[in-house]
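Hi R.,

As promised on Friday, here is the backbone we talked about, encoded as structure tokens. Could you run it through your design pipeline when you get a chance and send me back a sequence?
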């Protein structure tokens, strides 16, 4: 009898929560050899009649029966999850938040387990919709990068990047949430096995999918160059112009996806800073700057981008609001 613990933010990680019995007699609760590493937090009881009653812990490590039990547990868990997903999808979706991290970890660690569960692994969108990995791949099949790979977008902190995610949703893209500690590794695994390129919404490569096909009211080349030079001086970042719609955002901060992933995987060094600023050549804020030469309009666009990316600090936010009022009131 095995079950997954309910995952909560305040959950205390417990080990030795699984007990082995042989013909009704308790043997041990030190079962790291008996369980696949991705199921070490499982709770429950295992009863076996194939293991000798006098087995020692050192014998457990080399006993072929133990290896067979480990493989059986992995296969049985996958079968039970598949059965629940196929017979009661709504209940399966309800328990996914507790089961999902174990399933994703197992997919990363065990190729055979991954084959068994990949069609029932779920992703959750920023709008709360749950879909299986095949359903998700079908939804994004028309979004291709220059190499022909399907492209998906995600956030790992919906509170921080929710506004940026909404920009992609407004362009018709699905944005999924990857907010558990295993998700960076699982998303990389998906890229390697499913032929899908996963980009966080603030990745440099993701910017192309925010581009507007309508260049109405865009700045001229000369005006773009003037704004670009002023923004470079203000932000000390590489500046790139892009039409994102006259009702789109003024600017977006971008980061190097590969460098950020390395940091997340190793947790070494400082969080990589933004690498460039993308400014919307159709946004009216830049015409106001060009007409007035009032640098506050560009400061406002810069702070707007930092607000979208979650980089605007409390003191900066106060200045942003004060400047917003001053610009709107013409003072």
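Update: got your reply. Pasting your designed sequence below so it's all in one thread:
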């Amino acid at each position: 009898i095995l079950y997954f613990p309910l995952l909560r933010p305040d959950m205390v990680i417990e080990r030795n929560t699984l007990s082995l019995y042989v013909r009704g007699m308790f043997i041990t609760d030190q079962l790291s050899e008996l369980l696949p590493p991705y199921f070490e937090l499982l709770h429950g009881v295992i009863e076996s009649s194939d293991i000798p009653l006098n087995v020692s812990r050192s014998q457990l490590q080399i006993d072929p029966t133990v290896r067979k039990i480990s493989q059986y547990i992995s296969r049985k868990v996958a079968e039970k999850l598949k059965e629940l997903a196929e017979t009661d999808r709504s209940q399966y979706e309800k328990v996914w938040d507790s089961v999902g991290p174990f399933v994703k970890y197992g997919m990363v660690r065990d190729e055979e387990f991954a084959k068994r569960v990949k069609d029932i692994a779920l992703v959750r969108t920023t709008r709360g919709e749950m879909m299986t990995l095949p359903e998700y791949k079908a939804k994004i099949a028309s979004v291709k990068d220059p190499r022909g790979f399907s492209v998906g977008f995600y956030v790992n902190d919906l509170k921080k990047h929710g506004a940026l995610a909404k920009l992609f949703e407004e362009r018709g893209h699905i944005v999924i949430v990857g907010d558990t500690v295993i998700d960076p590794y699982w998303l990389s695994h998906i890229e390697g096995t499913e032929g899908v390129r996963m980009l966080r919404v603030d990745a440099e490569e993701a910017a192309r999918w925010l581009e507007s096909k309508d260049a109405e009211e865009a700045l001229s080349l000369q005006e773009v160059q003037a704004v670009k030079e002023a923004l470079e001086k203000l932000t000390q970042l590489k500046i790139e112009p892009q039409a994102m719609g006259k009702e789109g955002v003024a600017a977006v901060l971008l980061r190097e996806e590969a460098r950020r992933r390395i940091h997340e995987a190793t947790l070494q060094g400082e969080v990589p800073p933004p690498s460039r600023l993308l400014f919307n050549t159709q946004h009216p804020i830049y015409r106001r700057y060009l007409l007035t030469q009032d640098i506050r309009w560009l400061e406002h666009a810069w702070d707007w981008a930092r607000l979208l990316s979650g980089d605007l600090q409390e003191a900066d936010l106060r200045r942003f609001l004060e400047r917003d009022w001053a610009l709107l009131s013409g003072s």
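One thing I noticed while checking it: The chain has three domains: 2-87, 121-201, 209-329.

Thanks again,
M.
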